[in-house]
Amino acid sequence: MTPITEVEGRRISLSNLEKVIYPASGFTKGEVLHYYAGTAGALLAHLVDRPLSFLRYPDGPDGQRFFTKNVLPGTPEWVRTAEVPRSEGPTRQILVQDLASLMWAANLVTEFHTPQWRAGAPGQADRLVLDLDPGPPATVVECCRAALWLRERLTADGFPVYAKTSGSKGLHLLVPLEPTPSERVSAYAKSLAVEAEKELPDLVVHRMTRSLRPGKVFVDFSQNAAAKTTAAPYTLRARAEPTVSTPVTWAEIEACEEPDRLVFSADDIAPRLRAHGDLLAPLINLNNARPLPARAAR
């Protein structure tokens, strides 16, 4: 029998709680749900009003993995959705607005991915993201070197800059913006990546071409496009271990000399939240939003 639980007055079916999702560590689906319940206070702030894409991996990271954006069959009527424009015509996507909808979605076993804009203003980005992806043998150590240069560059343009691990191999840099058309944000982000490659040619590449990337950090600016999404802060990732896309301090980035220094699992997050709070909370505060520099508006 599938257990039924009540969350904030909503009845939710939770299935296969003893199923091992992460075989390398024995981490079960029940532990996945426990993690999301315990992290909801921080996670929900970064999901609310953002139409979600789900990367589902119900049989673990070694099983079938698939992206879904459209509202899923069987979605409870109380789960909110939003109309999202697409080139082929509008569709509807799920919004996770509260603990009940978070637990329903977590039961699907999914990574949470969000666009850089909110449902009320499609294509009007309120944050900029740079995804720093190392090409082996480069690691997150090289990503940290690139991140420090990019932070200085963004600070020169008047931006506060925040960072999180991708939960995979790299780093994400995030900047709060006044709502700005995604195509302008993408153009500005590309200009930063090109400049970084020019200044750090032995470290950075701005093109996705695989042959250019070994030993370098690919500064992926493309996730600022309106149709693209990025792994949300605090989401579990479909990796061998239950790693998490984790906010980090700049002191941690400056001190990173070994790849394992910036790898965090589900069990690490509650202690980090107690110690630091949500390091990405300033992204939610509209008072921190900044306009693109005038030269980027052209």
Molecular structure report:
With 298 residues, this protein is an alpha+beta fold. 26% of the residues lie in helices and 23% in strands. It is built from 6 helices and 16 strands. Helix 1 (29-47) packs across helix 2 and helix 1 (29-47) runs parallel beside helix 6 (266-276). The model has no long low-confidence stretch (mean pLDDT 95). This is ATP-dependent DNA ligase. Pfam families: LigD_Prim-Pol.
* Head-to-tail CA distance between termini: 60 Å
Give average pLDDT, whole number. Answer: 95
General form: globular
CA radius of gyration: 19 Å
In short:
The chain is α+β, with helices and mostly antiparallel strands and 298 residues long.
Write out key terms for the chains shown.
single chain, 298 residues, alpha+beta, six-stranded mixed β-sheet, four-stranded antiparallel β-sheet, 23% strand, ligase activity, NHEJ_LigD, MtLigD_Pol-like, LigD_pol_dom
Topology:
Layout: E1 4-7, E2 10-13, E3 20-22, E4 27-28, H1 29-47, E5 53-56, E6 66-68, E7 81-84, E8 91-94, H2 99-106, E9 110-114, E10 124-134, H3 140-156, E11 162-165, E12 171-181, H4 182-199, E13 204-205, E14 217-220, E15 230-231, E16 247-248, H5 250-254, H6 266-276
Parallel strand pairs: 13-14
Antiparallel strand pairs: 1-2, 3-4, 5-6, 5-9, 7-8, 9-15, 10-12, 10-14, 11-12, 11-16
Helix pairs in contact: 1-2, 1-6
Domain DNA ligase D polymerase: 28-279
Keywords: Ligase
GO molecular function, one term: ligase activity
